[in-house]
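Homework help thread (please don't just give me the answer)

Our assignment gives two proteins as sequence + structure token strings and asks us to describe the second one. The first is just a warm-up. Here they are:
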Amino acid sequence: MILWLALAFVLMLIWQAWEQDHNPQPQVAVGQQAEEKKSPSTSQEVPSVPTAEPKPAAASLTSGDRIRVRTDVLDLEIDTIGGDLRRLDLPAYPVSIEQPDVPLRLMADDGGRLFVQQGGLLPADKQSRAVDHHARFVAEQAEYRLEDGEDQLEVRLRWAGDEGLKVEKVYLFRRGSYAFDVRYEIENHTDREWRGHLYRQLQRIPPVENKSIFAMHTYTGGVISGIDPASGEELRYEKVGFEEMAETPVDRDMKGGWEAMIQHYFLVAVIPNQEEINHFYSKRVADSRYVLGMVTKEPLVVAPGESGQSGYVVYAGPKLKNDLESLAPHLELTVDYGYLTIIANPIFWLLHKIHAVVGNWGWSIIILTIIIKLLFFPLSAASYRSMANMRKLAPRLKSIKERYADDKEGYQRAMMDLYKREKINPLGGCLPILVQIPVFIALYWVLLESVELRQAPWIGWIKDLSIKDPYFVLPIIMGATMFAQYKLNPQPPDPVQAKIMLYMPFVFTVFFLFFPSGLVLYWVVNNVLSIAQQWYITHKMEKGS
């Protein structure tokens, strides 16, 4: 039982890696990009709405002037073509420990790393003008900075179009926030009504994936959430992979909700007004770029001589659960713990509370492990007592096996009779593993998905708990503790099973060489505590007998 449960978990990880290896995301080569620039695509990269005439997509994004914006947590560039968000760096999150002064670049429009956020206004009738992401804007400054003592920074771009229709795209940034507002302000100085639909979209080329079987694979792609306005059914969290955006495009109406493109530790999300109904869509453009967007169902109407506005919120930054929870319903699910979210959420909450006291994620993991062991102490104690009883019976089981060497049915009956006389449950020793496996998998995802542990040091050589131990010290200790547990456990009467159980510590050591060191630290501490508890109970029972 223990063997199959352990192997099932390992096979699950191998299967996930195999899926990544044999279903790679489409990549764009440098030569292909050059070819695309020569041959414009006929695909549409803006949504179709009634009476709207979206422009055809160019094979590469056109650029105008760049406007640089710096806050205390963001460093980004806005292009005057469409007022698009074209580049975004995160100064608080270096690309690596070795390059502490180089911020992680979350969004860009250069080469194969294209990842931008676009938006615009589509006409709802033939008399209204479009101000989409191909429109040209102008700004008063080429650079904006959130100065000391300021809590907000506003960046205004003015549409350089029809003099009778004034449109400004306004970005509003706040100190300490990865979320910012984007709104369109329309003034209608013409003699006819203006009607238009607001659309917002994310456009991206899939990033290059690490195809190593030992790499920690997490989901990279689109996600949507919202409420079906007809049925009231809530779509909490649905993944939309890059290929799926083209093969089975998103095509549905939803109230509120949000759309996002996520990756390991980080995301960019677009959040509309939660009372607004939008049509969500997806598509592939120029053969290598994927679009996930939404457009308002009801048009914004601005009468002659009147003004109006419409907007949305963008979050571009780390997957911080508390920040995401406050922005939109279910946005925190982008911190994806999989099917064991119900277990992972309280584990993360407790880990976060412990860290608030001790200030070190490594020690927090150790304290969390001790708490988990204490919670399951009664169950574990009962299981270890059962295993100790099984250990006592080992010589008698061996004798029965020798006596019934050629009679399997007789051997099974004699063995079960012995268990019945001694009042021993042979499966009782499996309970610690049964309890530990879901907790272990849930903690695996907590440590893998929590950006708080990214580049978080513990002690000495462990400078980043989210990556493997550089000197493999923890995996080797983990293997030694597994071997010690093997010695403490009753040996299977079947010599083949005994050999397999003997090899398991070595097999797991190889796999754990490439696991995040935070996860291996948990497993080491858990094994040490289990060995101490099992030795104490076994010693006490043997002394009592």
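The one we have to describe:
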Amino acid sequence: MTVFGSKKRKNLIGGLRKAAAGSSDGSKRQKLEALLAVCRNNLASVDEELISRAFQYMLQAHREHRRKSGEPYFTHPYAVAMIVAQEIPLDDVSVVAALLHDVIEDCEDYTYEDLAEEFGSTVADIVEGATKISTILVSTEITKAENYRKLMVSMINDIRVILVKFADRLHNMRTLEFVSENKQERIARETLEIYAPLAHRFGLGRIKWELEDLAFKYLHPEDYRALKKQIAAKRRDREDYIERFCKPLRTELAHANLKFEMSGRPKHLQSIFRKMVDRNKTLDEIYDLFAIRIILDTKEEKDCYLAYAIVCEVYTPIPERYKNYIALPKRNGYKSIHTTVLGPDGKMVEVQIRTREMHEIAEKGIAAHWAYKESVQSKVSAFENWIRWVREVLESPPAASNEEEGARQLMDNFRRNLYQDEIVVFTPKGDLIVLPSGASPVDFAFEIHSEVGLHTIGAKVNGRIVPLNRKLHSGDQVEIITSRNQYISTDWEQNVVTHKAKTAIRRFVNEQTKQVLQKGREKWERKAKKLKIPLDEAPLLKAAQVLRFPGLSKMMVALAKDELTVDEIVKAVQSEPDSPDQEQAVPKKDQQQVFEEFADVARSEQGLMIQGQRTADIEYEFARCCSPLPGDDVIGFVTLGHGIKVHRRSCRNIQRLLHDTSNGSMRDRLIEIAWPGVGDSEYLGGIRIEGEDRPGILNEIALAVTSYRNTNIRSVNIESEDSFFQGSVLVSVHDLDHLQRLIERLKKVKGISHAERYVEMS
């Protein structure tokens, strides 16, 4: 009997006994035995009791769940565990985490604490790291970006998180036919753009190719079927040719006393299709479809060069198609010699030459590194390149104008850093620098050091001065020319491709902007103190509107650059609105549309009290100019054809009407009204917020609002300029006190400098 120690002990024991009994002589027991057998064959050590407990725990947790295919849900985590154990084997903890990877996300009654208590914090951390974030009131782009951020932060702590995630995505792709076409396309595109390149980055060649082919199957189904049929039709001819090509090579390699394995390497469908599209050619016109791989049973790299020499003696090599990834390994640790030769009948054949260890690393990446390293310290060293890359990607872009843009920047950084194509360039001293394809001398400069990049004024490539936007090529020797008295142009971000360069340039621009903004604010504050104008944001917001600036930051920058005078701001602050309908707040170009969309506020079931009578049969609506709430002192205005408009008594339109002695007929249409008793109705309330922009601020704003009385956010309208933001949040509230409490909660959010009721909605 399996014993669990969590708070769910009693419920679990009964369920687990049934699960164990039901599976002892059935398919579930057979599956467990098959998983254990694979673990014994592939892992250095296996805690069979731990894996068995996790298997039974998973059966219980998912006992009522089913997949889209109709199968019991446990078949998915089981398949994921088999992939981890067989295709990217690392250790038994990874297998346990794979079995449990959906428990926290999909099973409401199971928490991180439950898993930690049953299986330890290491397993729980891996499962938590692979669990998607559940967010509210954020776009798909933000949710996706935050999920990737969380995944990669978890990966820094434990590399096994990414292994489980790859296995999860691979099995989902293998069973993608059971979901809708829209979901198929979305998941396949994400797989092709993110997961396949990410698998390449971590050296998982076999996983990468299968993910690409499966994504191709669902993104271009007709092309996939046609290409697969064409290749299958020529399979016999291709196999005969490969055998003809390999026969003399086997003889010569054996004569050199090399022990080896030689086989045809199938070109993957997505790779062939990409070449056909890029080169605008048919399948028959793609000449490098033939490929073989020579795997040497040796630990000596020099034997790879011997094998290469033999290949070049037997067949004519094509010099420009030679790549030595042994001398210059890829960032993911990939090592191999690639060459293309002219085989029988003048056909081009690609040949890859590598040792057995190199092959394992090429296929299984980080898992193979783990298996081939002897000490814990060397294992850690093997992961340093991956972890360094993860940290670079996670470095927050400093100049995002809002959370949407920050999410887009993070996703762009993912895609940019996942590019497979790399170039190798050299410093004047001969040091090797690896950069992504398309990198410029400026990227090279920032790779050397951020200060070198910022002070770059020129570059020499192979001894000749070149433009700073020139694309570098493998083998180039680059020398950077700098000046301490000059900084790189602030618009250079568009001419660099590395994340390090883009981040450094954004940070520099952001710091420059902050200095300019500070200069403008200091100018204003000196004048405001002399005239005893309040130093809060309200007068400046009014001035920004009057002077037609899209935001407060723009106005401060104009002041700092002497494009605007302090006296002009003072005049705008002291001016009166031109018309009763002019807003006092910073205008929002789509605020009218926002209110129109969310203006269907529920009226009180009891109605308002109008001169002592209920308004159940009287048409009325709340004025958009002041958006009254229960608790406000209100007054009614009888309109022509639209019933009664309910205003706050302090509404500027009402105050002007009361003080306009020439318009007695209009004042006669005012009517006394009052709120009834407390009800459960909801009303539209507005909150204006301002503060310092930073990644994650929108999530914190949403959490501060929705966590109080389950408040529903109806709309968010935020504008950001440099490192500052301002905008409004429209919420459903029950009364004035409800709104005031939300404002107080928002004031406590880090970075928010001002929060107040927003009433001028139209």
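TA reply:
I won't write it for you, but here's a hint about the kind of observation we're looking for: The two ends are 68 Å apart (CA to CA).
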